[in-house]
Amino acid sequence: MIPRYTRKEAADVWAPQTRFKIMFEIEAHAADKMAELGVIPREAARVIWEKGRNAVWNPDRIDEIEREVKHDVIAFLTHVTEVVGPEARFLHQGMTSSDVNDTTLAVQLVRATDLLLEDVDLVLAALKRRALEHRMTPCVGRSHGIHAEPTTFGLKLAGHYAEFQRAKERLAMAKFEIATCAISGAVGTFANVAPEVEAYVADKLGLAVEPVSTQVIPRDRHAAYFAALAVVASSIERLAVEIRHLQRTEVLEAEEPFDPGQKGSSAMPHKRNPILTENLTGLARLVRSAVTPAMENVALWHERDISHSSVERGICPDATVHLDFALRRLAGVVERLVVYPENMAKNLDRLGGLVHSQRVLLALTQKGLSREASYAAVQRNAMKVWRGEGDFLGFLKADPEVTLSDAELEPLFDLGYHFKHVDTVFARVFGEQGSLTAAA
Amino acid sequence: MIPRYTRKEAADVWAPQTRFKIMFEIEAHAADKMAELGVIPREAARVIWEKGRNAVWNPDRIDEIEREVKHDVIAFLTHVTEVVGPEARFLHQGMTSSDVNDTTLAVQLVRATDLLLEDVDLVLAALKRRALEHRMTPCVGRSHGIHAEPTTFGLKLAGHYAEFQRAKERLAMAKFEIATCAISGAVGTFANVAPEVEAYVADKLGLAVEPVSTQVIPRDRHAAYFAALAVVASSIERLAVEIRHLQRTEVLEAEEPFDPGQKGSSAMPHKRNPILTENLTGLARLVRSAVTPAMENVALWHERDISHSSVERGICPDATVHLDFALRRLAGVVERLVVYPENMAKNLDRLGGLVHSQRVLLALTQKGLSREASYAAVQRNAMKVWRGEGDFLGFLKADPEVTLSDAELEPLFDLGYHFKHVDTVFARVFGEQGSLTAAA
Amino acid sequence: MIPRYTRKEAADVWAPQTRFKIMFEIEAHAADKMAELGVIPREAARVIWEKGRNAVWNPDRIDEIEREVKHDVIAFLTHVTEVVGPEARFLHQGMTSSDVNDTTLAVQLVRATDLLLEDVDLVLAALKRRALEHRMTPCVGRSHGIHAEPTTFGLKLAGHYAEFQRAKERLAMAKFEIATCAISGAVGTFANVAPEVEAYVADKLGLAVEPVSTQVIPRDRHAAYFAALAVVASSIERLAVEIRHLQRTEVLEAEEPFDPGQKGSSAMPHKRNPILTENLTGLARLVRSAVTPAMENVALWHERDISHSSVERGICPDATVHLDFALRRLAGVVERLVVYPENMAKNLDRLGGLVHSQRVLLALTQKGLSREASYAAVQRNAMKVWRGEGDFLGFLKADPEVTLSDAELEPLFDLGYHFKHVDTVFARVFGEQGSLTAAA
Amino acid sequence: MIPRYTRKEAADVWAPQTRFKIMFEIEAHAADKMAELGVIPREAARVIWEKGRNAVWNPDRIDEIEREVKHDVIAFLTHVTEVVGPEARFLHQGMTSSDVNDTTLAVQLVRATDLLLEDVDLVLAALKRRALEHRMTPCVGRSHGIHAEPTTFGLKLAGHYAEFQRAKERLAMAKFEIATCAISGAVGTFANVAPEVEAYVADKLGLAVEPVSTQVIPRDRHAAYFAALAVVASSIERLAVEIRHLQRTEVLEAEEPFDPGQKGSSAMPHKRNPILTENLTGLARLVRSAVTPAMENVALWHERDISHSSVERGICPDATVHLDFALRRLAGVVERLVVYPENMAKNLDRLGGLVHSQRVLLALTQKGLSREASYAAVQRNAMKVWRGEGDFLGFLKADPEVTLSDAELEPLFDLGYHFKHVDTVFARVFGEQGSLTAAA
């Protein structure tokens, strides 16, 4: 976790205190069920909750014990005994460390994902508001970085909105993947712990029961989880790169919010740089870097080895915390993005009407010219405009092979023509609201 | 596509013939709808289907044209004109290359995924059959490569079965992700092609309509697709690594099928090597290697650039074809895996009863010894066995601090104790059938 | 290998014929030395060379045999016996398949790398020629996509030249890494083959002796090799992205070569798209994708397993062939890049003199104003220009807090001031020739 | 940086204090040279050093300023002014933030790499000592996890030693890659800072001058750096996996050190798990995960963007600190590895002499039998042994097609035969010392 890219709410999920609290609750819930099943005394379970429910666990003390016993869960349980008293010896009966660790991790990942889902909602809300605001703001669409045909700025944002809707579904699915509880004992046979304990704890924690755990929860789940986060990060990158492009000096169709007092460059006081979206581009790379190690974690040996553990101590907090930060930052950038419709209009005119070349092409072929001849005629005149020799409409009118009258040619240069299906797309993306209440 | 890891059925999906046939159908279906909408003559659409439906497109000729025009779809359309005649000029009206290319790719990926889904079914069937067969075959469960506690070989396989059920769901979800059709014209505005055309073609091809395409189908879908394949590959690796471990000389609990006539080593005629599962381990790495470039493809510039294209020419055939091959190979290995229950039994005995250490620990604590003292007593005696000094039960009986009588100790070494919940797990994984009809 | 991104020379390195020829030569050289050591008859070695030297090996026949014996090297040797006769039984004495396969791979990788080194020389030559040509062509330098300060187009290219010099060194080092020969027999003990045989074959093939092989050449070498290729691919991407930016409609400072007859877009005849550099961007992603599986190949089990083999059948040809293609394509793009100095000049003027803001800042501080006050004064006036309210120099002259006279302010806007160290940098990069003979 | 995998010495390299101290020194050295060149007053440079040399910079205060100005280097310089006084306004003349940041990063990476080089020396020393100790300790060599032929444990370790020698060279090369200083001002033209300043600071810091910086040091260097670290991590993984295999219950040829008081499992007191090498396996995955983002950082836009920065805030400390920890841990494991020669001997005998099958094969072919017939004869008898039907030598003596007398067969089962070239390999790897002084 890089402090400057970490929100407190996200960091808290991974704080030792949070972890020990969840661990205690898993053990204590399990004790309740074991007491009910007659495996341990009911009184022990009661005392454990009483003394442990609001206990503040001491990470330093646990570390100290771990240095001696070299085992993290045994260290935790020893500390619980120090706090709770002798009843704690009834905890963890028939369970293994992984039962506690893996289920704790599931709870933490669920909480982290809940934050991410909230974050995506912020991004979606910002995108929707700005998309509706700029639903009919004309700008040029670009393929290959080259002016292609007119579109609207709202349409651009609607596309990103649809992508973040998918991001939301992917996160929901990712949460579903990792929200399982395993309390199955050594090598997962339930030899010393009843399946009813697992079912009870799962229910208390809002998790599903892991159908087959082999002491550990299978790591294909976590691989799928981090892959989902990485796709979301890539979607962030796409929008960040779009904004970076739009802020380029020569384009300047939109700009990141720039605060009074902010300094763009230590050496060049005139600079206003898209540093937030550049930062998001980098954070996307960081979040994606969790995917490969998460996949390498899947093939644990036999019923389990512990090679995944060090990886997860890194990627679980890092990827979730940085993605949380990135989504929040992105929502803020979209929300406060400074949009310059006048520059969009200026850029749209830059190519002297060439953005209408396809309509001319289609009109020519519909007039009966072959596709190849039409293409050649349009391209020939376009290249003259490209070379700065004049205006596209003028050249077309003057070209004898262009079999369209001036009256036929002129309407082909109408901008509105391109926007007749904006409503269709908005209805697809935003539903009725998107379709009908642009002004709202 | 590496020929030796390629099945013909999978390669056919990516053959130029297949691709051109799909491209033609997209264009011809679009023409039907355009004719209905009055954009092009009905007769043209009829002739196009008549002459093109069963045409054999000539990839060499298309390549030849492309070398001149340096544009793949224009080359294709030019060739269609050569075959279909002048009516072909009505094709592609208002469409862009990406409308055809991206929708074609969607059809190919759907077909490739359908093969993968069939393959996973083969893996599942093999795993289920062998899991039921070995439901109660005892073997040692290992954590960290070290003997832990008894389990059954059927339980091992049931775990992999559950993982491949998830693999199947992931593939189904991945197919859903990429099964969309986009025919939205330049920069995705439908300026020159009606949304009805897209809806019609999508329906004909069994695809969903892409809600917002920006000339291209957004690549977050493909990133999610390849991520899903990579997780499946990782699950293959886990099972492959398990089998490789089991075939180790010192373990030899199972062995890959070994054909008469096969040579294990050019130099050492005694060798029988797990080369199929080692191969699967490598193929898993290959399939996973598609993930990073697929994610780097997401952030295309503005409405599209074409950097994704070269990547996809590689990873789309390679990842799907190799995964298809790997799943088939895996199904075969599982189906014909040679299992040695007698060696499993021998290995289970190897540690002189140490695999029962936990039960002794639990019994001691239930007798009232503190957890720490119990642990120390068990570990002390276990280490003597570990050093080869004798038998675990004997040492325990002789240890004055072990507060269990011989009559209490002996039943703790019963193997059957560990298998009492095998049925529970089988019922979770295989449902009624798994639970009740092991012998069937 | 994607055919359209494959040069014949590069593909030939990986052709079965090439491979079998190298395999034969390794076996035959080894036979020579074994004959000299008295292990096999001298006559056998002579006959083997005589009959095999110019033999055309039949890959189909070898495949056929492999399908039976399921072992590639045994299949090859069996075919050699068919061609060479009974003397072939003296081949491969005490050797293992890996001795032949790994050493063959080393020869192939060396040859592939020699092509890459030639390719980089082409890139370097093109970059140098264009750098010298545009040594003093002014253009704006951009940080964050925002105009910063003036530079020259030659300086830009000089930076890429220096990077490709490093690329060349990395490739040379990568070649050194993998240019080793191992003929050490089963598990690498030389039990049945003398180290002298290895030394002799290594010498004949121009390879170093692998100090310790464990039947296989250790795969850290190959991991380092593919990592080096991936860094080179990333350098290609950087230059490709630069050109894509320069070709943007709004920038248009340079353009990829565009052939007569070429079609930029099937729908929009006016388009001229940077498709070559977009393609290079994609190819860079593909080449990089070899790194992770190559690294996962390092940890083979014990003295070897064969999981690396399937990976290498993919990445060895793919990464080298595609990188070869990409470097050649890049050299061509640089060589024929269309540069527009007049557009560079126009863009440089676009910000109304803001690119000189740093000089004003420095002059103010040298006049005694504090750094903070100077920065505030410059930024305040710059923001007015940014908002299009007027000209930078004019605002500065009018600002009472700007403690510089008009006579002091005006020379601060001299473009030449920024180019006084171009020669210094060129001398560093191109040496004397770069420094002194720009016009030559 | 995961605290439990972080050594203090390694963390210190990345501490804010360290960073600010280096930043100050770069600025102050630059001031010295500027004073010499007459750009700033000599007295200012003197005072700056006097007041700043031993200053303790206040990271909290700098953070506070950064929150206002949103620029890290300006925040630092503002704080320097607070500490040093008004002379600080002469600092940073004509420089950019990247001049300071990138050069600071270079110094930090150099220091981190110096630690890694020391660490590798520890690994090498441990490997060498243990290799010499076990130079002639027989054990079985395994290919594909299957017993192949005899080797010695020393030979295994010698192979890893050779690999870590390469690791050391790769780290040295990686250090060379990133040990450059850039002080070239905005967009790298030296317009406002003389190249002599860069040369002077580089010399003071022990760095090379970056030939062409474009405001930033080109990131291909850092990509190559992290790739090198990743290859080293993969070599760690290979040795870790070897040890994990050797510690398997069925193999138990070696064991990680296990301290009195350590607990292997919370549930199973008998366990002694190879958790250190499993941990190393995971750390290797973590370190490798830096490679892809580092490569994605190369293609910065134009003269620079800042997307690399967030990535590097993560991967620079994480990869170096975790690799440092992993190398130290590995050195400790090797140093204290518990080796069981008696178990090695036992395992070597396990296959009833099959490990000698190649010698029999060779002897048969040298007796004149064809390669194919020899192979069939040996394999036929080996498979009987494999099936547990008896002893290899016995079967061979009884087989009439085996044309070797008992007197010829028996010496083929001599173990020493396989070790005759151990000295050769040790001489290659360890030089004279390795060759001659095993006992020393």
Short précis:
Chains A, B, C, D: Keywords: Lyase, Purine biosynthesis. Four copies of one chain form a homotetramer. Chain A folds into two domains: 96-257 and 268-345, Fumarase/aspartase (Central domain) (Fumarase C, Chain A, domain 2); 351-419, Fumarase/aspartase (C-terminal domain) (Ribonucleotide Reductase Protein R1, domain 1).
Keywords:
homotetramer, two-stranded antiparallel ribbon, 2 domains, Ribonucleotide Reductase Protein R1, domain 1, 440 residues, disordered C terminus, two-stranded parallel sheet, Fumarase C, Chain A, domain 2, mainly alpha
Structural commentary:
4 copies of one chain form a homotetramer. Chain A is mainly alpha-helical and 440 residues long. Chain A has 2 domains: 96-257 and 268-345, Fumarase/aspartase (Central domain) (Fumarase C, Chain A, domain 2), CATH 1.20.200.10; 351-419, Fumarase/aspartase (C-terminal domain) (Ribonucleotide Reductase Protein R1, domain 1). Helices cover 62% and strands 5% of the residues of chain A. In chain A, strand 1 (138-143) and strand 2 (146-152) form a beta hairpin. Chain A is elongated and about 100 Å long. Chain A starts with 7 loop residues before the first helix and ends with a helix. At the A-B interface, helix 5, strand 1, strand 2, helix 7 and helix 9 of A face helix 5, strand 1, strand 2, helix 7 and helix 9 of B. Chains A, B, C, D: One of its GO terms (cellular component) is cytosol. Chains A, B, C, D: Residues 352-430 form the Adenylosuccinate lyase C-terminal domain. Chains A, B, C, D: Its EC number is 4.3.2.2.
